[in-house]
Every structure is written in C-alpha cells, then in structure tokens.
C-alpha cells in the first residue's frame, strides 16, 4: 500500500517530524526534516509500488542515531515491525553519526561505511536497498550543493561509491527476476 502525501497518517507523521526537528537545519541551511520527506518521495520515484513500510522508514530512518528516539520511539509512533526492520537494516554501524557529521571522516570510517553498504547490497533485501538508495541519492544532492570542502569530499569518498553498489544490487536482482 503506497502512503500518499494526502494520506492522513502521512500528514500526521510529517507534522511530527516538523515538531521534532524544529529549528534544525542541514549543512546547506535547509530545514532538517525536509530530508526525510525528500527521501520518501525518492523511494516512490524509484519504485512506484513502494510499500507503506518503505515510506514510513524513509520518514524515520534516523531513529536509531544519537537523539533519534530509538526503538521505543518508533513503536510509540505506531511503526510496523517491517518498518522498524527496514530502519534497523539500513542504519550504518554505530561508529559515526553519518549524515550529520561529515567533517572529520577518516579513511577507516569510509572503509567501514563501504563494507556496510556492500553487506547490505549482498543481502538482496530489495525494500531496504531501495530505501537506502533513495536516502543516499538525497545525501548526494545535498553534498553537491554544500560549500564546505571537507564535507563535499564525502560525495566522492563515500556516497557516489555507495550509490553504485546499491544500483548494481538492484540491477542484479532485476536480471535474476527476469
């Protein structure tokens, strides 16, 4: 079931995100909560048959990061077990708060991230891979316009290679399905 932007639940979840992230902005100065909405739209663009779980995971995908609210928060928001599974499967290792602190990434941390992406791609978990690809594509767009060179560097060190790995995994899956 696709979660339409006019769906009351979707509107309620987006309103909650607006309250939760009020006053926070990304490195380009845009309201932070817009990232989640853009990722949800990207999921739908990538897969017009995207599930409600994928859409809700897009909205709450940082719940397991520092100050994200955790499992209890996701359950309080009424997220399904499948949505929570997608969030968990798509959350990078806890070594770094990716998406928020890209200024001091080390080669070791980039290698950890790439290993995480390779492992995710190898699972064949299409709903999670599609969601993560949408998330990474939004981050790529944000980094493309970022004027902080040390952050922009992650475009090439981390996110473009990750996008290629996930796109390849989806292509292999499509070829296997015929």
Description:
- This is HD domain-containing protein.
- It comes from Aquamicrobium soli.
- By secondary structure, the protein is mainly alpha-helical.
- It has a single domain (8-177), classed as Hypothetical protein af1432 (Orthogonal Bundle), CATH 1.10.3210.10.
- It contains eight helices and no strands.
- The longest helix is centred in the C-terminal third of the chain and has 29 residues, at 149-177.
How many strands in all? 0
Number of domains: 1
What's the alpha carbon Rg, rounded to whole Å? 16 Å
Instruction: Quote the CATH topology.
Output: Hypothetical protein af1432
Organism: Aquamicrobium soli
Protein name: HD domain-containing protein
What distinguishing features does this structure have?
Hypothetical protein af1432; HD domain-containing protein; 66% helix; 178 residues; globular; 8 helices; mainly alpha
Short description:
The chain contains 8 helices and no strands.
Which SSEs are present, and which pair or pack?
Layout: H1 8-20, H2 33-46, H3 52-59, H4 70-76, H5 81-90, H6 107-123, H7 126-144, H8 149-177
Helix pairs in contact: 1-2, 2-3, 2-7, 3-5, 3-7, 5-7, 6-8, 7-8
